[in-house]
Amino acid sequence: MTTITSGRVLTTRRLSHFIGGRFVEGDGHTLENINPATGELVNVVPVADAGVVDEAVKAARRALEGPWRRMSDHERASILRKVADGILRRFDEFVRAEVLDTGKPASLASHIDIPRSAANFNSFADQVLTLSTESFGTATPDGAGALNYSIRVPRGVIAVVCPWNLPLLLLTWKVAPALACGNTVVVKPSEETPTTATLLGEVMQEAGVPPGVYNVIHGLGPDSAGEYLTRHPEVNGITFTGETKTGVAIMKAAAEGVRPVSLELGGKNAAVVFADCNLDRAVEGVTRSVFANCGQVCLGTERVYVERPIFDQFVARLASAGAALKMGDPFDNTTTMGPLISKSHREKVLSYYQRAKAEGASVILGGGTPNLSSRFATGFFIEPTIWTGLREDSVVLREEIFGPCCHISPFDHEDAVVAAANSGPYGLATSIWTENLARAHRVAAGIEVGIAWVNCWFLRDLRTPFGGSKQSGIGREGGVHSMEFYTELRNVCVKL
Ligand SMILES: NC(=O)c1ccc[n+]([C@@H]2O[C@H](COP(=O)([O-])OP(=O)(O)OC[C@H]3O[C@@H](n4cnc5c(N)ncnc54)[C@H](O)[C@@H]3O)[C@@H](O)[C@H]2O)c1
Ligand SMILES: O=C/C=C/C=C(\O)C(=O)O
Predict the structure, then answer these.
(1) Is residue 165 within 6 Å of ligand 2 at its C-beta?
(2) Which 8-state DSSP code applies to residue 109?
(3) What is the distance in A from the centroid of ligand 1 to the CA of 122?
(4) Fewer Cβ atoms within 10 Å of its own Cβ: the N or the C terminal residue of the chain?
(5) Contacts of 34 (CB under 8 A, 6+ apart)
(6) Model confidence pLDDT, tens digit, residues 132-187
């Protein structure tokens, strides 16, 4: 294994692992990171074998004995704020890296992904300073009593396994609270989007995060870096965002050694649009929830239910909003929709486009691939697509597609639409569009999800509980809920 002790991540076309505060090359086994907007090579990425993963976990373990865990919460919070500042100082570099890895419009990365990544560090730096614990005065037979109080201790080494759709945002959503609580982490970014996690290693060093506290290993999932990491016996907790079937595999790995897991998984989210909604706001919100990030947002909408009196009007307006999306160069400010993440993901989404037709859908918009000029003709672009006319039990209405597409169904009764929204195995998020306050509260309570938005979508307050019901996940992160996952409570009982 070669060690590179300095060197800027992005000046080379070859990424490294980041272990124990050093950029480390692997044994020569690599994968290619492809720009989905063009099909061109972004960089070559090492693939960690079991030995490299072990080295990273050991570096994280050693760092638990070092200064990080012994620092006061104030000291750690202050370093995490420097990490946030470091991301903002190198804002353009992060935006560029995220855009090359994902193909998403630079306007999106600079409004959402990168600012939110910095905000995650600031938010959890605040959070750790406002944590409280419980305490009880306990009666004893001698009358003197006892005092019970609890303290929070870090869990230890946390494995952080990330997806490709919002790479740095979702990574920092987990790394920031884990570090704030005094843990050390080994991160496995998605093989599709390895760059910003690596670049963050430089920012961590510049901010004064001690070596071994933040480690990054690259590679694939099954029988590769992801599996070796989650099976590693010296990992004390696993936090994962990604597909439900991967969550199942990770939960099995975590069972060995009885390690806690936090799982943020897939969805098949419903938007429910009542006839008394503010139509302009509903169309704008549902357009974003269906097409943002080319439909690759776990919270995105793939099932839209519209009350019958406004059904035709809503379908026409969503179709015209979808048709107005502009695909092409992600660095062009007028581009509003990027490509899918990979050739194979485009094949998967296109198979659902075929399936919808086979199941008898009316194709209102799209349904295929666009003809783009020059460089972007070889990218993995796909048309924004809208269907109507499918039965509730069709495959296209039950499985997560993760593309820029939705089906729109009419409904007549509130109870029926709540039942439709609740059908299926997932329960991540919903959005409800109505000006009737009582109904908004009732429907939000009736739909089985972790996150219900009323007259908005993806409006985030980082202190709120975030996660999914049913097969959309286990546990909640955000605010104090993150702190609960990334620490263990220890009760101290003092006889007075
Ligand atoms: N609930 C949420 O908050 C949330 C947020 C974003 C994305 N998602 C979901 O993520 C999915 C898209 O992301 P994806 O395709 O990258 O997910 P994925 O499950 O394919 O991969 C996610 C990560 O897991 C790793 N991995 C794969 N198999 C593994 C295994 N057996 N053991 C250990 N690691 C393994 C991958 O290498 C990658 O780093 C969608 O289903 C989406 O709904 C959920
Ligand atoms: O694709 C999924 C989006 C997840 C978003 C968050 O985890 C968040 O906003 O904290």
Answers:
(1) yes
(2) I
(3) 25
(4) C
(5) 40, 41, 42, 342
(6) 999 999 999 999 999 999 999 999 999 999 999 999 999 999 999 999 999 999 99
